[in-house]
Design a protein that fits this description.
This protein is mostly helical. It has 9 helices and no strands. Helix 1 crosses helix 4, helix 3 packs antiparallel against helix 4 and helix 6 crosses helix 7. It starts with a helix and ends with a helix.
Length: 183
């Protein structure tokens, strides 16, 4: 009986995490990022964009309720399971996966630190620089980088205003990059 009760909860949590992750991926695949803001439409570019949106959600739910912390952990696990699966789809074998996963995890956590610091200080210039450094290395800051930083800042504000109950129930609200920042 207890096993049935816990497996129902696990299935419900999985459905919520799946829904959240699907919304994160949809937000990360907005055409404006790739067509207007020059995010490379490559596996690494997609990793950067999904990672950025995962970070925004994790930032929103950090230091909240137990349910929110559970969502954060499961979302992080799903992100890295997706990265692992993507590496395998690219033909990387079992022996190469751990080394690449460590590198990608370091990249993800390094980026979240830089983005978080810039957002905490409400420093759009630092955010634009961090985004450029990580997503379009070697390129000079331009109007697209500034628009991209505005999008990220607005996305963080939008998520912060969204009731936590909605998020842990499986609903996220990200801004439409083309509609609001389509420069």
């Amino acid at each position: 009986m207890l096993e049935r009760l816990f497996s129902r909860k696990r299935r419900a949590n999985r459905a919520i995490i799946d829904a959240l992750y699907e919304q994160i991926v949809a937000a990360a695949r907005q055409p404006t990022f790739y067509a207007r803001w020059n995010v490379p439409d490559t596996p690494l570019g997609r990793f950067e964009m999904i990672g950025l949106h995962v970070f925004l959600v994790l930032r929103r739910v950090q230091d909240q309720t137990v349910a929110a912390r559970d969502v954060a952990q499961e979302l992080t696990d799903m992100f890295f399971a997706d990265v692992d699966s993507s590496l395998r789809d690219l033909g990387i074998g079992d022996m190469g996966i751990p080394k690449r996963m460590k590198k990608l995890a370091r990249m993800f956590y390094g980026r979240t630190g830089a983005y978080g610091e810039a957002l905490d200080r409400d420093d759009r210039a630092a955010l634009a620089d961090a985004l450029l450094r990580n997503i379009r290395p070697g390129e000079a800051r331009d109007a697209q980088a500034d628009a991209f930083a505005s999008y990220v800042s607005h996305a963080a504000t939008t998520l912060a205003a969204q009731p936590l109950e909605e998020i842990v129930a499986g609903t996220l609200r990200f801004p439409d990059a083309a509609e609001e920042f389509g420069r």
